[in-house]
Amino acid sequence: MLLATLVGVLTTACESDDRMKEDTMPSLPKSTQLEPPATKIENVVDNHWGIQVEDPYRWLEDQDSQEVLQWFTQQGAFTEQVLSALPRREQLLQRLTELDQGAPYTTYGVRQLAKGDVFFLRRNAGESLAKLYQKSEGAVEARLLVDPDALAVDDESHVSIEGYMPSWDGRFLVYGVAQGGSEETTYSVIDLTSGTTLPDTLTNIETAYNRPQWSLDGKGFYYSRRRELPVDAPDTEIYKRTEVRYHVVGSDAGEDVVVAAFEVSDRLPLLETDFPSLVVTPGSDFAVLKVKHGDNNEISIFSAPVETLLTGAVPWVQITQESDLVTDFAVVEDSIYLITAKDAPRFKLVRTTLSSPNFADAREVIAAGDLVIEGIAAAADAIYLSAKQDGVNKVLRLSDEGSVKPLKTPRDGAAYISSVSPLVAGVLVYESTWIQGGVRYAYDPLEDNFSDTGMVPKGKFDELDGYIAEEVLVTSHDGVKVPVSILRRADLVLDGTNPTIVYGYGSYGISQDVSFSPIRLGWIEQGGIFAIAHVRGGGEYGQAWHYAGRMQNKPNTWKDLIAAAEYLVDNGYSGVNHMAPMGGSAGGILAGRSVTERPDLFGAVVMQVGMLDAIRAETTTNGVPNIKEFGSVTDAKGFEGLLAMSAYHHVEDGVQYPAALLTHGFNDPRVNPWMSGKMAARLQAVAQNNTPALLRVDFDAGHGIGSTREQVLAQYADIYSFLLWQLGRPNAASGS
Fold first, then answer.
1. Among 76, 79, 139, 605, which residue has the least CB neighbours within 10 Å?
2. Radius of gyration in angstroms for the set of CA atoms belonging to the chain, rounded to a whole number
């Protein structure tokens, strides 16, 4: 839910400008006649709260229909034909591949055991997918545990690793795989002593918000699973009634004990749409049940003695409810630390006991203030916190004595918790900047210092000269100051013609944090500007910032992005028709509504797996869990908010809209592909002056999760070449 030299070594601005001048006559000029496949209209009119809502392409929602599949196939083929003819598309793909392979490998998803073993996902340069490895204490080489390439059913499809967890004693490991970006995950178990995969197979796994948790004796693990449904069950039932089960290694999964579920216990007032998951912590006699209410950040928490979990009569005690505004927690023996926004718009940290919990009287550990507290994890030596100070991510250490210490990383960049274990002292910290590659450090609490783990080797494009990141505050429509990060070449002339991506998200309290991306560098080195608008709806300033951009407040998100675009014009970074809003998933609301509200401001728009028909979202698999973020059509105010944010319903006849590129994976379980399909059809229907509205379809992908590197790089080569075609380039000839 994106990075720097030109071919060869970037030396002087003169050389790079000369290369651009050589390609000022594209092979596909804007005047080329573009005739996308025809789309029939079968208008459906719904009445919501006295308002007639038209839907001319409702028929595209039937994705099991051969007619709909054929339509998507034809649209995808047409788009591929157009994009493949764009100037420098193949050169861009080659360059993005080179940038992406600048380092020998990349690692993530690190887990540590007490005896020194480290597990991680690693993707070597040139490989399509990450593989799972284990490196034992003192070992020189890591052992390959799971290779997704070897699990693919044929050469035309792929599977990806979707989470894993080793047992506390290092004897077993459970891992999940999913087909073609579908996120439909199956768990398997490895005996780490022999390296063999056991017969255990668990299906219908829920992985969006949960991960498996091993019992303290290492004999089995707790996991979250979706129920079995008949083939003809409505899509809206798929994410309902998630269960927590316990699986004993070597046993039949059909006999797994249900530990927590909807209507399983009077002590657990769960809703059908809740996502429960269990946390077991070494050193504590209590298990904690985390209940996520759909996609809402605020969770409910229950606890029970670990020894009672398999008795069939678990004495659950509720610690917090949704209205307590708790978003994260950590357990240390009998204590539970809670991050809450209760009377704290940027969050505070409190503590109560598990043996006698009382949230109302919980002791304040870190008071509310300017610090934005985001996450918490317990190590063997202390509590570690992820937080933001003045918009920059930091890692804090909370000692047993209650003192809070910011950890100053070697480069003093943005710092994130990478891995923490309750059985291991210290913390692994990932540090990054906008224009420098990341480093994973190990923090030693005894020596109070950092050492480079070597898990993220320096790439040849990680520290290039000539690139800058500027941080500015932009005044939005209502006077609120919105942060904007502007990434560009230092030598770029601010003459108002630079092709510019204005990127944003603005939902779920998710921040656009400081990060380095070789893919993003591939845009910037072309003379493009990449501006990140930290719009409301994100978490940059805590819960208050999030709530200022959700439900009926959602218009603030795209109005913030529009304000950022106007700032870029006013200050010479770019100009009208040289900019494109870009966003994915819930960020499709942001991109789609920016361009439908201000079509005069932009020259193009990119919407990736976008939520574009908010009125119909509630009818989809992921729609019901999202009600608390976006609202419901069953409520008058909710409908009003959904209609306001629904880009599809704001496309008007007779309006000149910018060129549009919509991308979607056909296996997407989070945002249905017909969202992009209907929006593309509507834009094609009203297009003027031969303006393209292209739908890019990948039939072996989903929401982007689990995509291969080839898929990712090909998509961005298409996006960048499309934008350079539509937005123009420095020194480009007229009409390019």
1. 139
2. 25
Helices (H), 488-538: 518-524
**Cβ atoms of residues 469 and 487 within 8 Å:** yes
d(CA 688, CA 657): 8
Residues 256, 248: Cα–Cα separation, whole Å: 7
In whole angstroms, give the CA distance from residue 488 to residue 528: 7
Which residue carries 């520290």 as its tokens? Answer: 463
DSSP, residue by residue, 153-172: SSTT--EEEEEEEE-TTSSE
pLDDT tens digits, one per residue of 568-617: 999 999 999 999 999 999 999 999 999 999 999 999 999 999 999 999 99
pLDDT tens digit sequence for 167-202: 999 999 999 999 988 899 999 999 999 999 999 999
Tell me, what DSSP letter sits at residue 708? -
E strands, 140-207, are: 143-146, 159-166, 172-179, 185-191, 196-205
Distance CA 193, CA 172 (A): 8
User: Which residues are 470's β-sheet partners?
Assistant: 486
- 593's tokens: 């509504």
Q: Is the pLDDT of residue 31 over 80?
A: no
Non-local (6+) Cβ contacts of 88 within 8 A are: 23, 721, 724
Structure tokens at 427: 């913390």
pLDDT at 731: 35
The DSSP secondary-structure symbol of 526 reads: T
CA dist., res. 546 & res. 321, Å (int)? 20
- Looking at every residue in the chain, the average pLDDT score rounds to 93
> Is the Cβ–Cβ distance between 61 and 671 less than 8 Å?
no
Q: Which two tokens stand for residue 438?
A: 């990341």
Counted residue by residue, the chain has a size of 736
Alpha-carbon span 1 to 678, nearest angstrom:
22
Partners of residue 224 on adjacent β-strands: 244
- Give me the mean pLDDT over the 378-382 stretch: 97
Residue 66 contacts by C-beta under 8 Å, 6 or more apart in sequence?
A: none
Amino acid present at 693: A
From edge to edge, which strands make up the β-sheet containing 449-452? 414-419, 427-432, 439-444, 449-452
Distance (Å, whole) CA 505 – CA 256: 40
Give the mean model confidence (pLDDT) for residues 336-362: 97
**Of residues 307, 282, 278, 306, the one with CA closest to residue 290:** 278
DSSP character string of 257-291: EEEE-TTS-TT----TTEEEEEEE-TT-SEEEEEE
What backbone phi and psi angles, to 5 degrees, belong to 264? -90, -20
Q: Which of 616, 622, 619 is nearest to 226 (CA)?
A: 622
CA distance to 113, 166, 189, 246, 310, per residue, from 174 (Å)? 15, 6, 4, 13, 20
Burial status of residue 406 (CB atoms within 10 A of its CB: 0-12, 13-18, 19 or more): middle
- Beta-bridge mates of residue 10: none
pLDDT band at residue 165 under the 50/70/90 scheme: very high
Are 216 and 306 a contacting pair, CB within 8 Å?
yes
Q: Tally Cβ neighbours within 10 Å of residue 211.
A: 18
Q: Helix count (H) and strand count (E) of the chain?
A: 11, 38
Among residues 591, 597, 580, the alpha carbon closest in space to that of 506 is found at 591
Average pLDDT of span 368-383: 97
| DSSP assigned state of 103 | S
